[in-house]
Design a protein that fits this description.
The protein is built from five helices and six strands. By secondary structure, it is of the alpha+beta class. The strands form two sheets. Strands 2-1-3 form a three-stranded antiparallel β-sheet, with helices on both faces. Strands 4-6-5 form a three-stranded antiparallel β-sheet, with no helix packed on it. α2 packs antiparallel against α3. The longest helix is centred in the middle third of the chain and has 29 residues.
Length: 160
Amino acid sequence: MTAYLVLASPGAEAPDERSEVIADSFAPWAFFAPVIWLLFNRLWLEAIAAALVLISAILLTGDAGQLVLGMAISLALSLITALEGRNWRASALQRRGWRLVDVVETDDPDTAFDIHTARALSPAKPLAPVQGRPIMRPLKLGRSGGGEASSIGMVPVERN
């Protein structure tokens, strides 16, 4: 099963037939042709950056005689694009005003859109109360004393 992100177009009510359904998975075409895949998905800045990295890798393998380093950079570019390309696409759409309206786990995008449509058109169900879950207070930076002290990484925080 694959998780699919359902993004509604700007100003549209969900579900919308123009909605984008993006799989949150490995993109094989992005692995084999990262720059072309990025251009096809209108990720212009990412495509320019990938092209520059790819040109640098080609120059390393040819002129500088660093065959292994150039191939490693090219392979790393392909892997990063294939693993993160779909997330970059979802982020780009959200920057253009698209809204993430649902996350559906299923086998194909058509079924994901059908499930999203059924969820959106069903009457709202009241949320069941969560029992046994402690109420967490917001974290604050620094240690002023009196609260429960902890840290996130190397940053001290305190719950009041």
